[in-house]
Amino acid sequence: MLKTLYDKLWDSHVVRADTDGTTLLYIDRHLVHEVTSPQAFEGLREAHRPLWRTSANLAVADHNVPTTSRAEGIADPTSRLQVETLDANAKSFGLTYFDMNDKRQGIVHVIGPEQGATLPGMTVVCGDSHTSTHGAFGALAHGIGTSEVEHVLATQTLLAKKSKSMLVQVDGALPAGVTAKDIVLAVIGKIGTAGGTGYAIEFGGSTIRSLSMEGRMTVCNMAIEAGARAGMVGVDETTIDYIKGRPFAPKGDDWDKAVAYWRTLHTDPGAKFDLVVTLNAAEIRPQVTWGTSPEMVTTIDGRVPDPETEKDPVRRDAMEKALVYMNLAPNTRIEDIKIDKVFIGSCTNSRIEDLRAAAQVVRGRHRAANVKLAMVVPGSGLVKEQAEREGLDQIFKAAGFEWREPGCSMCLAMNADRLEPGERCASTSNRNFEGRQGQGGRTHLVSPAMAAAAGIAGHFVDVRGL
Ligand SMILES: CC(C)[C@H](C(=O)O)[C@@H](O)C(=O)O
Ligand code: SF4
């Protein structure tokens, strides 16, 4: 039988399947962070349960860590308690753990692949919705809730039901200045934030094949924002080259055997998907969100839409509400929207290529006077180190951008980095709902190059013209 990549990943992890489709799946890799793990560890402790397979777990603190003056510790007591609780749990349960001062520390979805802890053919879970990122490696990866975190820690399995399959096929050469972030925002603009509900999405086509692993991770990262449970890309030489030599990757004979297996991890030609969506890369332009959902997106040469032209009353209401929150008038040119802050970071766009793309734009230029703060937050200590080797930190600092320590930072308002009420931000993160970056803050999702360009111009601007 012809199989999709999703079928192959699913079938190879079934421990037991009931007639109603409820399936117990074996989990190969469990990533742990401080927000969704405390109750899970507490549950194990109360039940006197050990971990089923300690070496399957990798833990890191990311959401609550400060991105400045880390040596002084964490000022906020709630954040400090969460991180200290993970410190203590990792120690008492014996998990591999990168603490806040370890240079391998970073955002959980950046460090998994960086360490080679995320490998093709694996099932990867984490108590975090953006676990879909890891699907870029030909893995079945998705977020789980805290009670499931406890279940995985105790049994190395998860109860699941198979989703339907969707292929998002993107073909053609990407125009200059258009990036993986623009592809995925364009996909969400097309299918909507509910378009992927009930599906696992495979991204394919020549455009996706030509993306680096960083780009593929950006695309899979936001599959969850399209409503899908998982995003994935088939394995090819780009995947294998990325993994080779990473600390957790197999070595010697094991490497050869693994690679032979990994090369089978793609959809068989002719295998059927429940739904196929196609995009032409040549038609994708730099994207900017204007509202409070990633599907409220348009192109840099576009305008804020006018709710008057929307016939569906539910959608019209949502648009009106979003425009009030965003303080935007219908028909405003996107290029005329002024910004107060820039955030370059998050598990969507904080990898070395993202930082290179942003640095290329700001090199020799300076932050606009109306931009109060432009911050660059590398996804991990190792990304930071690499960027510094390449002199990117100097380029950013010379341009008036702040160079920070790794973490989730201003992607969400769970640490010291946040927007003040009414502030408008060009952000490379993945969510723009009300209050996401701070109460009353206004988020516009863009690519790293577009965020950098907005920081220089003081308003959104087309990177293709720079
Ligand atoms: C805190 C965590 C549970 C959450 C998630 O699951 O995604 C966060 O990472 C986010 O991006 O909103
Ligand atoms: S960077 Fe943002 S989206 Fe990613 S895990 Fe952290 S909070 Fe969630």
UniProtKB/TrEMBL annotation:
One of its GO terms (molecular function) is 3-isopropylmalate dehydratase activity. [4Fe-4S] cluster binds at C347, C408, C411. Its EC number is 4.2.1.33. Pathway: Amino-acid biosynthesis; L-leucine biosynthesis; L-leucine from 3-methyl-2-oxobutanoate: step 2/4. Gene3D superfamilies: Aconitase, domain 3. It catalyses: (2R,3S)-3-isopropylmalate = (2S)-2-isopropylmalate. Keywords: 4Fe-4S, Amino-acid biosynthesis, Branched-chain amino acid biosynthesis, Iron, Iron-sulfur, Leucine biosynthesis, Lyase, Metal-binding. Residues 7-458 form the Aconitase/3-isopropylmalate dehydratase large subunit alpha/beta/alpha domain. Its cofactor is [4Fe-4S] cluster. Pfam families: Aconitase (PF00330). Binds 1 [4Fe-4S] cluster per subunit. InterPro entries: 3-IsopropMal_deHydase_lsu, Acnase/IPM_dHydase_lsu_aba_1/3, Acoase/IPM_deHydtase_lsu_aba, Aconitase_4Fe-4S_BS, Aconitase_4Fe-4S_dom, IPM_dehydratase_rel_enz, IPMI_cat. Coiled coil: none annotated. Heterodimer of LeuC and LeuD. PANTHER family: 3-ISOPROPYLMALATE DEHYDRATASE, HOMOACONITASE, MITOCHONDRIAL-RELATED. Belongs to the aconitase/IPM isomerase family. LeuC type 1 subfamily. Catalyzes the isomerization between 2-isopropylmalate and 3-isopropylmalate, via the formation of 2-isopropylmaleate. This is 3-isopropylmalate dehydratase large subunit. The gene is leuC.
